[in-house]
């Protein structure tokens, strides 16, 4: 009996000390940032150059592999915003290379392959956090306007992202992955969002199902490659029965573009039943559409208003509910002095109505991720969408370590330094869960509320291990021989999923996802080159 207990103890502690998991990730706030004009603009903050850093906010872009900013000489702001602080707000800040003493020219002034805009390229020092600096990082300054749906700078997070590669090469992150939560800026109690690089924030993944799928590589109108289907949409009036809006309509295939400031963009035929159930009337201004802030989203008259919620189902598997205060709110606009203001005489619904014959592929926008969470893993060529919890909680940063095929927690204080993994892989083989309703797993071991210090804990552990070292080693050898004798055939080896993934267990990286991966026909390579999981050409969103 004692030998069995000892064997069990050894098999529990061995992976902790025998495996090497080196999780590294960064967590960047996505929130209102103060610019030099004193305007506060939502985005990911870059502090550029010196001696006085210039603040610029960026939108996460799955379309681009490089990063594109707006500069003072070529701001291309529309109409009345063209000059002054309103333009800086509209563009998320304007970088002025002439006042940075650390800026250096680069010979690359040619548009990158498949880019849709001519740009001037430059290098400067980029500060992401107090102890995370990218010296002489190359980025582009646009010299022409692209479109009004994404009017700020764009941080390139595409499949061959130079930004993610730089962070990986610098050992700031341990995988080419990222996760995004928009937060919200339109409610009475705003909530900061986040962009996690190299992993995800477990506190932003709600209990319940998620969906995971491979990138789509054959859709010219969605170079992002992140495509899902909207299979139903229902409205729940306050105190009334739920009403299905799209009962007679086909499923809607949409491209996920988190850099756009709306919940979704849908054809007029899909908007009409929503408007009918809500009982709202379009504003007379611009045919009921916003002009600059939350571009082309729907403006309605202030009364009457719909007081319920909206539920959107993706791939017939995951339902995301949009609360009323994020669905209908006072119109937002950019004041000529720079700040973003509210207009109570008009209400705004952050849904874009695509006119018939427009040709634009329907989309899910960034504001959808006020209620959902997006996780993208380029190393695996797939993405996950899960519901986000309605209440904020203490961040729990999890990192993918691609080299060691594991997931582990990164302490918040060490998120930009040398992370201390709290758990390790217990199986070096790749595995996956077949349960489509399994939660995104917590990959950490359970923690204790004990107040013992690190030295005391280390002493206890070392003492215990010293006393058990020889016995543990012998027991492990015997256990391993028995395991080999009883092993399954090689083609069946790996993790076996017989139920939902344990929420607080440590898991192999491949268990992060609720669905099995799907290989591209003919394998992952074409003509000797790795197949791009994100389209590398054509079809820039219109």
From TrEMBL:
SUPFAM superfamilies: Acid proteases. Keywords: Membrane, Signal, Transmembrane, Transmembrane helix. Gene3D superfamilies: Acid Proteases. The chain crosses the membrane at residues 456-479. Residues 412-450 are annotated as: Disordered. Residues 415-448 have a biased composition (Low complexity). InterPro entries: Peptidase_aspartic_dom_sf. Residues 1-18 form the signal peptide. The keyword Acyltransferase does not apply. This is Aspartic peptidase domain-containing protein. It comes from Paraphoma chrysanthemicola. The lineage of its organism: Eukaryota, Fungi, Dikarya, Ascomycota, Pezizomycotina.
């Amino acid at each position: 009996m004692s030998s069995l207990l000892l064997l069990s103890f050894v098999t529990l502690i061995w992976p902790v000390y025998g495996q090497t998991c080196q999780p590294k990730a960064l967590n960047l706030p996505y929130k209102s940032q103060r610019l030099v004009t004193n305007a506060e603009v939502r985005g990911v903050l870059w502090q550029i150059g010196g001696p006085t850093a210039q603040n610029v906010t960026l939108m996460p872009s799955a379309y681009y592999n490089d990063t594109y900013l707006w500069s003072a000489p070529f701001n291309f702001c529309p109409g009345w915003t063209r000059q002054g602080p309103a333009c800086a707000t509209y563009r998320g800040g304007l970088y002025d290379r002439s006042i940075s003493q650390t800026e250096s020219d680069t010979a690359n002034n040619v548009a990158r392959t498949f880019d849709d805009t001519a740009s001037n390229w430059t290098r400067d020092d980029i500060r992401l956090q107090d102890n995370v600096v990218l010296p002489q990082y190359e980025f582009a300054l646009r010299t022409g306007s692209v479109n009004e749906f994404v009017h700020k700078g764009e941080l390139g997070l595409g499949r061959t992202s130079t930004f993610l590669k730089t962070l990986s090469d610098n050992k700031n992150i341990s995988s080419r992955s990222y996760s995004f939560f928009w937060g919200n800026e339109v409610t009475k109690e705003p909530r900061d969002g986040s962009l996690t690089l190299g992993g995800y924030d477990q506190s932003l993944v709600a209990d319940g199902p998620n969906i995971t799928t491979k990138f789509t590589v054959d859709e010219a109108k969605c170079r992002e490659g992140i495509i899902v289907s909207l299979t139903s949409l229902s409205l729940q009036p306050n105190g009334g029965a739920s009403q299905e809006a799209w009962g007679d309509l086909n499923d809607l295939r949409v491209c996920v573009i988190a850099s756009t400031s709306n919940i979704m963009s849908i054809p007029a035929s899909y908007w009409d039943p929503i408007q009918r159930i809500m009982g709202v009337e379009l504003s007379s201004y611009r045919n009921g559409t916003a002009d600059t802030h939350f571009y082309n989203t729907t403006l309605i008259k202030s009364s009457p208003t719909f007081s319920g919620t909206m539920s959107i189902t993706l791939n017939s598997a995951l339902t995301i509910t949009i609360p009323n205060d994020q669905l209908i709110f006072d119109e937002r606009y950019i004041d000529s002095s720079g700040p973003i203001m509210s207009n109570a005489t008009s209400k705004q619904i952050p849904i874009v109505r695509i006119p018939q014959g427009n040709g634009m592929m329907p989309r899910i926008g960034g504001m959808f991720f006020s209620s959902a969470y997006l996780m993208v893993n380029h190393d695996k060529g797939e993405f996950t969408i899960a519901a986000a919890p309605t209440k904020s909680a203490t961040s729990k940063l999890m990192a993918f370590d691609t080299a060691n095929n594991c997931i582990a927690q990164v302490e918040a204080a060490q998120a930009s330094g040398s992370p201390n993994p709290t758990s390790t892989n217990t199986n070096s083989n790749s595995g996956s869960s077949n349960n489509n309703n399994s939660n995104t797993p917590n990959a950490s071991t359970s923690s204790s509320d004990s107040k013992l210090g690190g030295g005391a804990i280390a002493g206890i552990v070392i003492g215990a291990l010293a006393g058990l070292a020889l016995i543990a080693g012998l027991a492990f050898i015997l256990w391993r021989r028995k395991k080999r004798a009883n092993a399954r055939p090689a083609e069946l080896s790996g993790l076996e999923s017989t139920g939902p993934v344990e929420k607080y267990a440590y898991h192999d990286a491949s268990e992060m996802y609720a669905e099995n991966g799907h290989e591209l026909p003919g394998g992952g390579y074409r003509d000797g080159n790795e197949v791009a999981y994100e389209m590398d050409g054509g079809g820039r969103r219109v």
